[in-house]
Specification:
This protein has about 280 residues and is mainly alpha-helical. The chain is built from 14 helices and no strands. The two termini are about 35 Å apart.
Length: about 280
């Protein structure tokens, strides 16, 4: 019976080592992912569900969570849109310096987050190169939630570009030509021919950009201003709790962020699975 049970999970393969690789996978997930998260939840649960809900209802914690998740959602959406445009240009057009631009897309991956935050703060400060022009117009970027948005778009754009770029390269130009030959407008061609195979990649890029944005710390604290109830993010509030030796309070906020992040990513994955079934693309 046990062998029949294992055969349900074992897929035929020309490569040996199913048992070892499965064991390593479970061990890795257990030690590196599940055990730390379990310890986090166990620490937070020491004050009970009522205490967790009371901590979540704290005005400062609620404001920080709204700032972190709200701005992250908007930034991930904008990064996905502009990432699609950047990926399309880099894939479909040949122009001088294209390889340089393509390499620059990955800079947020390699650049230390603190360096990115300092650079963005200096650029968008009221006396910065860009901020000096925006200040007379009444647009203040640095030390506001708008500054957080700029930083999160900066670090999320590479995820959106790299997840969509291979899919664009696989779309045959003959499909666009056939659509135009049949009399479809440009918008109809984009909506009916191009977007369906790109939608799973767009959702994947959105999920990755959102996940990165929610936990971002280094590039945000320098441009956010960190004003409570205005531009304070939840990761910073966790650091503040730790510096005050309030370990339980820090783990409670972290557990709340974990629950919201898990629910959001689960919803995104369900939408992605639906889009694959709906449009028939993997």
């Amino acid at each position: 019976m046990s062998s029949a049970f294992l055969l349900r999970f074992k897929q035929p393969s020309v490569l040996p080592g199913f048992g070892i690789t499965l064991g390593y996978t479970l061990l890795y997930l257990g030690l590196i992912v599940l055990l730390p998260l379990g310890a986090l939840v166990a620490k937070a649960s020491s004050i009970g569900l009522t205490g967790i809900l009371f901590a979540a209802a704290d005005p400062r914690v609620s404001a920080a969570l709204w700032t972190s998740f709200g701005v992250s959602l908007i930034a991930a959406g904008v990064a996905s849109l502009f990432g699609l445009l950047v990926a399309w240009v880099l894939t479909r057009y040949d122009f001088p310096g294209r390889k340089i631009v393509d390499a620059m897309v990955d800079l947020p991956f390699a650049l230390p987050t603190a360096v990115a935050g300092i650079a963005l703060a200096a650029l968008y400060a009221p006396n910065g190169w860009v901020g000096a022009f925006l200040e007379p117009l009444g647009i203040r970027v640095a030390y506001t939630p708008l500054g957080i948005f700029v930083a999160l778009v900066f670090i999320g754009l590479p995820f959106a570009v790299r997840t969509v770029q291979p899919l664009i390269a696989e779309i045959e130009r003959e499909l666009e030509e056939a659509s135009a030959t049949l009399g479809a407008s440009r918008w109809r061609t984009v909506r009916s021919v191009l977007l369906p195979p790109l939608l799973p990649g767009l959702l994947t890029g959105f999920a990755l950009a959102f996940a990165r944005a929610v936990g971002e710390y280094g590039s945000v604290i320098f441009i956010a201003g960190n004003l409570p109830y205005v531009s304070e993010i939840a990761p910073l509030l966790i650091v503040i709790k730790l510096s005050e030796y309030d370990y339980t309070g820090a783990t409670v906020i972290a557990t709340i962020m974990l629950a919201i992040s898990f629910a959001t990513l689960l919803l995104i994955n369900l939408i992605q699975a639906w889009s694959r079934r709906r449009f028939g693309y993997v």
